[in-house]
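Because discrete structure vocabularies remain unfamiliar, we first show an illustrative case, written as a sequence plus integers encoding its fold.
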Amino acid sequence: MLAQHYPVRRVCRTLGYPPSTYYYQGQARDEGALRVALLRLAGDWPTYGRPRLTAMLRREGWVVNPKRVGRLMREMGLSAQRPPRKPRTTHSQHGFRRYPNLVTGLAVVRPDQAWVGDITYVQLRREFVYLAVLMDVFTRGIRGWHLGRHLDASLTLTALRMALGRSRAPEVHHSDQGVQYAATGYTDLLVEAQVQISMAEVGEPTENGYAERLMRTIKEEHVALTEYQDYPDAYGQMGRFLDEVYQHKRIHSSLGYLTPAEFESQWLQEQCGFVALQDESL
């Protein structure tokens, strides 16, 4: 061996290899525990793909990269399951006032700057019920929601009252032009709270894209995976998903793989620190 006659560093330098290469002894990685953790997370979050599962594993302390997680997912036959999307009907043929779109091109940089609202249906064993949700765009946090048996103005009004009771009023409220959002009772409450009203153009769902994606998430990650016994059961399970799982457990790639609650808390702490620094400089 050359190392018996020449210094290891000189031999490595001559061959173009770092000394660590000589001393390193490869060890077979035991991926059994990692596979168990990955299988558990994939079962808890069946619509998650490689990036989010990687982030979830890292949150549990695993040192992994997306490439390794992707390889394990292929070997284990894991893939994100996405149920087919179904159309949603918006009743926009009404005589109530229409409002212009105020959010296109709007830079959302703080909580409660803009809320978005939408409605979807949920199929139970013997009936359809309807879900109205209000989300804060900046934090992706759920501000208010209601699951009702009827697709009328009380559905969205109940969700709005919950939101205003939980949080300060937004600067802008954005929705489609459905009758539930354009009805006088709903818009009067927004005007009373000094909220600017914004609406997407009819037939342009992309203009309410944040709310559309939120509803898709709820349908794919909760509704499609849950069997409700009846309306009270659906209301309870929906509440647990929106207020606990979505708000405090579900990570968002757009939030740096934080939950809405974590992201908002971190932002508020940063603002407090910035204000404190400004006060010290005065």
Summary: Confidence is low (pLDDT under 50) at residues 23-28, 84-89. Residues 133 and 145 are 4 Å apart (CA to CA).
